[in-house]
Amino acid sequence: MQTFKSRNFQSPKTGGAYILHQGNQLSSHPKHIQTVTSICNQDDVYPLFKSLKGRPYTEEDAAQFFQWIDQGWKKQSHFVFLATTSDGDIAAALDIKSNSLDAAEIGYWCDQRHRGITSAAVLIMMEWAKNQGYKTLFAKPINAKSAALLARV
After folding, report:
1. pLDDT tens for each residue of 59-107
2. How confident is the model over 18-30, as pLDDT tens digits?
3. Considering the entire predicted model, what is its pTM?
4. What angle in degrees, to the nearest 10, is found between the helix axes of 59-75 and 30-40?
5. Are 45 and 139 in contact (CB under 8 A)?
6. How many CB atoms lie within 10 A of CB 136?
7. Distance CA 30, CA 25 (A)
8. Residue 33's CB: how many other CB atoms inside 10 A?
9. At what angle do helices 118-132 and 144-152 cross, to 10 degrees?
10. H/E run at residue 100
11. Is the CB of residue 47 less than 8 Å from the CB of residue 109?
12. In a 3-state reduction of DSSP, which class is residue 133?
């Protein structure tokens, strides 16, 4: 798979400036660890982490998330993208969960303070995936907001 070149995009709701990055281009800086920890404990995001079985998402979980991001790109097994504000704050994460070009699941989460950016980011990720040879991408939405996003893209 080719590397992903960071792409600028705007929030269709606010016009705010964002950048979509290949996930391993961002370090596991303490600020990023804290931001991911905070986002993953938000009501709309936390249900994605069934393996936590009710315990809070921790900074250790976030550090492991960054390791998983690095491993995926290095091994070409899965591909995580991170959307940041123009100031470099993480706002959303998206991923292609496998390297199966025939059909691969995608996933995404977004900070509640940046609602409305995920559709634009998913479209950029899908364009990259198509250029890599992916034939079908699908998602398993866990809530109405996620299902509505899929209807828009």
Report:
1. 999 999 999 999 999 999 999 999 999 999 999 999 999 999 999 999 9
2. 999 999 999 889 9
3. 0.94
4. 110
5. no
6. 11
7. 15
8. 20
9. 60
10. none
11. no
12. coil
